[in-house]
From TrEMBL:
Residues 53-164, 518-634 form the Peptidase M16 N-terminal domain. InterPro entries: Metalloenz_LuxS/M16, MPP/UQCRC_Complex, Pept_M16_N, Peptidase_M16_C. Residues 1-24 form the signal peptide. Residues 206-383, 671-842 form the Peptidase M16 C-terminal domain. GO terms for molecular function: metal ion binding; metallopeptidase activity. The keyword Hydrolase applies. It comes from Brevundimonas subvibrioides. The keyword DNA damage does not apply. Pfam families: Peptidase_M16, Peptidase_M16_C. Belongs to the peptidase M16 family. SUPFAM superfamilies: LuxS/MPP-like metallohydrolase. Keywords: Hydrolase, Metalloprotease, Protease, Signal. This is Peptidase M16. It comes from the Bacteria.
Amino acid sequence: MLRSLLLGSSLAVLISAAPMTVAAQVAPDIAPPPLEFTHRELSNGLDVYAMPDATAGTVTVQLWYDVGGKDDPQGRSGFAHLFEHILSRKTVNIPYGGISTMVENAGGARNASTGQDFTNYYETVPPQYLETMLWTHAERMARPVVDQAVFDAERSIVQEELRQRVYAPPYGRLQRFVIGDNAYDEHVYRRSVIGSLEELDAAGIDDARAFHEAYYRPATATMIVSGNFDPAELDRLVDQYFGDIRNPDRPVPVLERPVPTPRTQPRSVIAYAPNVPLPAIAAVFPGVDARSGDSAALDVMSAVMSRGQSSRLFQSLVYGSQVAASAGLGANADEEGGTLTANVTVAAGREIEEAEAALNAELARIRDEPITDAELIEAQTELLAADLRQRETASGRAFMLGNAVVAENDPRAPDRRVQQIRAVTAADVQRVARRYLDENARVSIRYLDESQRPEGVAEDSWKNPAPMPTFLSVPPAILPANELRAEGEREAPPAPGEPRVKAAPEIVERTLSNGLRVIVARSTDLPIMNAQLVIAGGAASDPADRAGLADFTAGLATQGAGDRSAPEIARSLEAAGAVVGGGAGADSTTLSVSAPIASAGPVGDILSDIVERPTFAEAELERSRTRTVNALTVALRQPGPLASLVLQRVAFGDAPYGASSSGLPASVRQISRGDVQAHHDRWWRPDNAALIITGGMSAEEGFAFAERTLGDWTRPADLMPRTETRAGEVRPPRIVVVDLPGAGQAAIAAGVRGPARSDPDFYPLAVANAVLGGGQNGHLFQEVRAKRGLSYGANSSLPGRAESGLLTATTQTKNESALEVVDLVLAQMERVRTEAIAEQALSDRETYLAGGFSRAIETTGGLGGFLADAVTLGLPLDESERYAERIRATTPETLRAAAVRLDPDQAYVVVVGDGQFFVEAMRAAHPDLVVIPAAELDLLDPTLGL
C-alpha cells in the first residue's frame, strides 16, 4: 500500500462544526489525553515502544523502518514501495503469502505502507497472537526470501497498483506526478514514491537483495506494540526473537543531500490527461519540515483556509462564487521538508481563469489580513478534536507515535503539538502566510482533459525543468540468498497464548414519548460522543425519476435550519470540533454527529434544528445541486464507481435498489424544493427514526441528550410511510461492457442476488463470500493478485439489505487482461459453489469474519454504525455479541447450500474500460456480450437501452 493524499470528492455532506454564536464564541475544553508508553533500546539498536491498554480487545504490532522513497536507488524510483510488497510475502520458514494467512486465520488484519521517510508493516490481532506476530516480524527482518518468483509477482502487482491509483482516477496523474514533480526541485522528495512503470520494469532481483542488505536491519527499525498485553511478557518475547539479530557489517548507505536552490521565480505548468471531467488547478509552495517551529501555525492556517464548510476556500470558491466544485489547501510536513498545496476543481460551466482569480484573492487575503479570533478558535478546536479521535484506539495511538518518531525523532511530539496548536496566535498565522505563501516561489498548475492538448505539445511538457538529484546506487548484496526450507524442516510459528477478552459495551434502549427509539452504548472512557439518527426509507423511497432525493434531502437539511443560515451552522459548529454527516443508503437515511462531550449541548441544539426545522431555501438548494452534480460528474468518469452503478441497474432494473442512492446528474437536476419538503414531511418523523449514542456518555447522560435534543420533535397523526418493494424480481443474467476510451484500467464487477440481512441464510452466505473474496486469503485475491499479478486487489462483498442484496466481486486490471480476469472471477464463483470445504478452512474463514466484525465496532463511530444498521435491517441489538456465534454455526453443508447462489451462469457481469483492448476477444468468449459506449450510457433508464 502506498501512503498518500489524493484529490477526491465525496457525495456525503460533511461539516466540521461547533456551538454558539460568533459573538459569544468560547473554545470548548478539549484535552486529548497524553500518549502513555515506555521505551527501551536493544543492544543491536532496535527501538521498542510499549503502549499497554488493558481495555483494548486487540493488540497492534508495528515495525517502522527508516527507509522510504527518498532512498530509492538511482534509476529505480518506486523501489522502496516495491520492496515493501516483497518483504510481506515469504521467509525461510513462511511460504509465499503465509503471513497474511496466519493473520487472517487469527481473526486479524495486516498491511504495510511506504512514504518518503519510512516503510512500515503492521498487524492488528486478538491479544493471544502477540507472540506469533513478533515471530513473523523477526522472520522478515532476519530471514526473508527474495527469489525470482516473489520479485516478478510483486512487481506486477505494484504496477497494477500504479495503474489503479494513478492512471484510472481522473486526477491521479495530477496528484502523483504533476504536483509531485513540481513541488520540489533539487530535493530527495522530488520523485514519486510509487515510481514509474518504466523504472519498475528496469529493476531486477539483484536490486532487491542489495536494497534489503543496505537498509533493513535492527538499527534502522522501530517497533511499536499497542493494545492488550503484559509489558513484562512483551520484553521477554522481544529479547527472545530480536535480541540476537545482528546488523550487517557494512554501514547504511548515506546520500549526501543536494543543496536545493531556493525558488525565486514563479513557474506555470499545464498538464493534460484522459477522462478529466472538470478542469483543475493547483498552487504549490515550499513548506517546512515536521520539526519546524512554524509547523503548528501552518496547520492552523490550513484549517482556516480549507477545513470544513466555514473555511475561507469553501465559502469563497465553492459556496459563494460557486466557481469551484472543491477547494482545499494542505500543509504537508515530513522529516526533511514540506510543501503547501492548494487544489481546486473548477465547477462545470465556469472558466478556469475565474477559479484562479478566486484562489489568488484568498491567498492574498490570508497574507494581507489577520484572521479573526473566531477563525482562530475554530481552527484550533477542529485540530484538537481530530487529535482526540485519533487517540481513541490502540492502533490509532500507535500510528500517531510512529509518525512522530519517523518525522520528528521525538515520541513526545504529538503531546507537544497539542500545546503548540493551543499557543498559535492570529499574528503567527499571518506571519507564516506571508513567509511561505510566497508568489515568487509558487508553481501554478492547470490540469485539463487530453482533448484540449494543442498539437505539438508533448505529453510530459509539465515536467520540472530543474535538475533531478542524482541518487545512490546501493552496493551489491554479499550475503548468501535465503531459501524457503522444505516443509518438514521449517520452524513452526508460536502457538497462541491465553485469550485476553474485552468486555462488551452495555447497550441500553428507551423510547421517548414521541416514539423516537433511543439506544445508548458506552464504549470508551474518552470524552467524545457519536450520535446517529437513523430514518427508515432511504434511497429505496426515491421516486423513479428523482434518484438521489433522500440523499439530497439529508445534505440540504444541514444547509440552513431554524434561524441559522448554512454559513452560520458551519461557523457555530466548527468551533466545537464536531463533525456532522448526512446521507442516504439503500434502506435508510442517516444523520451523524461526532463531537467532544464538552460540546454536546450546543451541538444538540443545532442537530435539533437540522432535523425538525430545515429551511430548504431555494438558493441553498441550487448551491447543493451544483455541488452534487459536479461530484457525480467526477465519479462517473472513474471505472470502479461506474461499474458498480451499472451493475446495480443490471441486477435490479427498475426496482428501487437499481437506482443510484446518490442520484445522477440528470435526476438531481430535476429535484425541486417541493420534492425535498414533501420527502422530509413524509419520512422524517420520530416514530420512523432511532437515535444511537455511543462513546463516553453514560446511559442516563445519553438519554438526557436525546430528550433535550429531539424530545420535542412532533409525531404526525397520519400513518407511517412504507416502501412496498425494494429489490424486485430476479432478473436474467447479463454481461455488459461500458466502453470508456482512455480509461487507465478496466474495472470488473460481477454479482449474484443474495438474501435479506435478516434472513438466517445470510450467515452461511457471508462465510461463502469470505471464501470467495474475503481479504487476502479469499480465492479472488489469491488467483487474480497473488498467483498472477493481474490486479492490486480482488475481493467480494455482501452488504446487508432489508430485501434481497447483491453479492459482488470487484477488481481492476490493465485493459489488456480484462477478459482473463472476468473468466477468473466467474471460475472462482463456480469453485465456491461446487468445491467441498474442509472443516479447518471453514473455521479459518469464520474466524476471519468474526475478527473483522470485532475490529469494526471497536470505535464509537463503528459501533454506532453497526447499531444503526441493526435498526435499519431489523436485527436484535445483541447482534453485536451474537454475530460471531451465528457465523461459527456455519457447517460445510450449510455453506454448500448457501453457495448454490454463486452460479456463474446466473451472474451479472459489468466491465468498464477502454474497449479497444478487449472487446473483440471478450465477445468471442461471451457471444451475448453487450457493449455500451460511455457517452451513450443512461443510468436513469432501467433497461440501459438493452
